[in-house]
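quick one, 213 residues, struct below
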Amino acid sequence: MAEDDHRAPAAVVFDALGLDYEKAFAASEAHQASLRWLLERLAPGSSVLDAGAGTGRPTADTLSGAGHRVLGVDVSPVMVELAARQVPAAEFRLADLRELPLPGASFDAVCAYFSLLQMSRAEQAAVVARLARAVRPGGLVALATVPLDVEGVQALFMGQPVEVTSFSAGAFTELVTRAGLTVLAEDDAVFTPAHPDAVPEPHLFLHCRRAPE
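---
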């Protein structure tokens, strides 16, 4: 069995993309706006989980640069290595979000930007619920996805073969609400990554709060 067969599909894809992924999405104004939304509301020195940290930029870099304590998690060894080198002020860990132990109420905020799309719908629902429990009552959660009603669709993403599963915007919002989060704001955008094989993508950013106890 090939080495790639032992790894999660997302690890194979993002190991191959490396810094190309960061460069392709660097101009996303909606992502930057989401980070500003968090920064305006986080208390100084907050603890933040970056779930699906990629290369560490822009999320972990922006948040740690503002003085917050950031733990970045990614399933791709290449991404974790790049992130640790590029954002030394944050901590990074190689782990699959579906299996990562997450103590309850252990973070002031959680971010998960486009890190669910290669999971099944059941896995996405379970991960969002676990992320919601990992943030303290009253804490913040920022989520981003591609709001399409697709399941197990074979596609090419920046030249890499992927299997994509997602929800419509309404269904994803309902999933988030069922996880115990209140959606405070949302941002819809269409973004074309800076890559010759990229096509315009709809993006949905949800900005949420876990209900206080």
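The first strand starts at residue 47 and ends at 51.
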